[in-house]
């Protein structure tokens, strides 16, 4: 029962993870490397959604893209970490219950 | 209005304004306002405005790329450190260090994500403007009902409707209904032209405008994949998209090709083949300026002769100069 609720809570962000993985596999290679940051905007958004959920993660992603303009310095820009780290991440990127390695 | 519609609204308005503006201009110049060619040229005009607006961004990127020469030694050091390490952790660490170096030295050669993402909605906006015109629906702004009707009815060369796609004609053909073969021919031609221009652009970059450092990087491998992946994308979209949208894309591709050609010729990546060619060209003309402002010229090799030159009087010297074959040594 508890597992079911967790899966339900994690469903939106996992749907977004699937979408972003698809984008990174198919569309992103079409125009090569463009991002002035590390991790790239899509990788950043993916991590942000894994870490903070769909709403906050997407907002962080949008903010990052807005910062990724031609006059930006670029450089290393990691996703802000959450204080209490509750979930694990599978190799594909899905967020699951349990502390895992993430 | 749905969420995406709200985001696209201002872009659609601008796209319509540019389209209608060009159409008005071309009609006043004497072209038939209802002709397909006039609308195609309006789309071409739209591309010119959009791409011209993006030139400053492009120039900035090129300038950053030129400054890459300054960090080339450090970049090489990083690449050597991770040479042969193909595991993910090493790759990530390498990207991280490279990015840090770019930031520290202010030489980031990457173009950034925002301009790219801005171009996508323009494309979508154009797509929806054309799609609406197909159903003779007016746009959100300057494209009124009358113009939408005209656009919706416009046929290129009087035979190929701009709102039709290869796919729509194909399904008509398989259903045994009347279809327009010229739409299919034009769409197929455009796919071939787009693929050709893309290949040319990419080959120019890869063969002429890459420094040895870039050629050693994982980015280079990605460029190669891109070269063979894009024709597939063009073929797919060439089948699915209406002719009008395809014209936008084709013009945009040709713009990229010409822009790339000019950049490779006049501001090549330092250390690349094209840069060497440019230096040689300028030096021949005596116009190559070094970093400190000195003009570098390549001394043309004169045949070494041990024979003493006989002193001659002025008149004979002039004659000798004028003799063909002598002037160049």
TrEMBL record, chain A:
SMART domains linked: Haemolytic (SM01234)
UniProtKB keywords: Cell membrane, Membrane
GO cellular component: a single term: plasma membrane
Keyword Lyase: no
Source domain of life: Bacteria
Main location: membrane
Family annotation (NCBIfam families): membrane protein insertion efficiency factor YidD
Family membership: Belongs to the UPF0161 family.
Annotated protein name in UniProt: Putative membrane protein insertion efficiency factor
Organism: Orlajensenia flava
Taxonomic lineage of the native organism: Bacteria, Bacillati, Actinomycetota, Actinomycetes, Micrococcales
From TrEMBL, chain B:
Chief location: membrane
Pfam name, any one: 60KD_IMP
Taxonomy of the source species: Bacteria, Bacillati, Actinomycetota, Actinomycetes, Micrococcales
Any single GO BP term: protein insertion into membrane
Name recorded for this polypeptide: Membrane protein insertase YidC
Transmembrane region(s): 7-25, 37-59, 109-130, 179-200, 225-250
Domain Membrane insertase YidC/Oxa/ALB C-terminal: 39-264
One cellular component term from this protein's GO annotations in UniProt: plasma membrane
PANTHER family noted in UniProt: CYTOCHROME C OXIDASE ASSEMBLY PROTEIN COX18, MITOCHONDRIAL (PTHR12428:SF65), OXA1 (PTHR12428)
Membrane protein topology class: Multi-pass membrane protein
Region annotated Disordered, chain positions: 300-329
UniProt keyword annotation of rRNA processing present: no
Similarity comment: Belongs to the OXA1/ALB3/YidC family. Type 1 subfamily.
Coiled coil: none
GO molecular function: membrane insertase activity
Record localization: Cell membrane; Membrane
NCBIfam families: PRK01315.1, yidC_oxa1_cterm
Comp. bias regions, Polar residues: 304-313
Summary of the function given for this chain in its UniProt record: Required for the insertion and/or proper folding and/or complex formation of integral membrane proteins into the membrane. Involved in integration of membrane proteins that insert both dependently and independently of the Sec translocase complex, as well as at least some lipoproteins. Aids folding of multispanning membrane proteins.
CDD domains: 5TM_YidC_Alb3
Subunit (UniProt): Interacts with the Sec translocase complex via SecD. Specifically interacts with transmembrane segments of nascent integral membrane proteins during membrane integration.
Alphabetical UniProt keywords: Cell membrane, Chaperone, Membrane, Protein transport, Transmembrane, Transmembrane helix, Transport
């Amino acid at each position: 029962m508890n597992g079911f609720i967790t899966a339900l809570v994690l469903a939106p962000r996992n749907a977004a993870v699937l979408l972003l993985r698809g984008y990174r596999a198919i569309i992103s290679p079409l125009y090569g490397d463009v991002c002035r940051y590390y991790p790239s905007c899509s990788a950043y958004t993916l991590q942000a959604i894994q870490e903070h959920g769909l709403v906050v993660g997407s907002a962080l992603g949008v903010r990052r893209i807005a910062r990724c303009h031609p006059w930006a310095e670029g450089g290393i820009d990691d996703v802000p970490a959450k204080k209490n780290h509750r979930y694990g991440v599978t190799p594909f990127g899905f967020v699951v219950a349990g502390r895992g390695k993430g | 209005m749905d969420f995406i519609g709200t985001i696209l609204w201002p872009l659609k308005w601008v796209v319509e304004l540019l389209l209608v503006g060009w159409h008005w201009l071309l009609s006043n110049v004497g072209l038939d306002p209802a002709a397909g060619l006039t609308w195609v040229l309006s789309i071409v005009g739209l591309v010119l405005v959009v791409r011209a607006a993006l030139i400053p961004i492009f120039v900035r990127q090129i300038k950053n790329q030129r400054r890459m020469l300054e960090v080339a030694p450090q970049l090489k050091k990083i690449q050597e450190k991770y040479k042969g390490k193909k595991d993910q952790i090493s790759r990530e660490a390498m990207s991280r260090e490279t990015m840090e170096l770019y930031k520290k030295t202010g030489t980031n050669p990457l173009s950034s994500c925002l301009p790219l993402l801005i171009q996508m909605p323009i494309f979508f906006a154009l797509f929806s403007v054309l799609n609406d015109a197909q159903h003779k629906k007016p746009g959100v702004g300057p494209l009124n009902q009358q113009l939408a009707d005209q656009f919706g009815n416009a046929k290129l060369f009087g035979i190929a409707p701009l709102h039709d796609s290869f796919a729509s004609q194909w399904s008509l053909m398989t259903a045994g209904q009347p279809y327009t073969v010229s739409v299919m021919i034009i769409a197929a031609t455009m796919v071939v032209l787009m693929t050709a221009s893309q290949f040319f652009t990419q080959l120019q970059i890869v063969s002429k405008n890459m420094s040895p450092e870039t050629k050693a990087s994982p980015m280079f491998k990605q460029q190669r994949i891109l070269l063979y992946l894009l024709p597939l994308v063009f073929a797919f979209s060439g089948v699915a998209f209406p002719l009008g949208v395809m014209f936008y894309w084709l013009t945009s591709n040709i713009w990229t090709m010409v822009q790339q050609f000019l950049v490779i010729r006049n501001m090549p990546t330092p250390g690349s083949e094209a840069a060497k060619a440019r230096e040689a060209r300028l030096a021949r003309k005596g116009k190559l300026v070094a970093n400190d402002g000195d003009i570098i010229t390549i001394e043309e090799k004169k045949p070494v002769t041990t024979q003493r030159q006989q002193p001659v009087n002025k008149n004979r010297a002039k004659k000798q100069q004028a003799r063909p074959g002598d002037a160049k040594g």
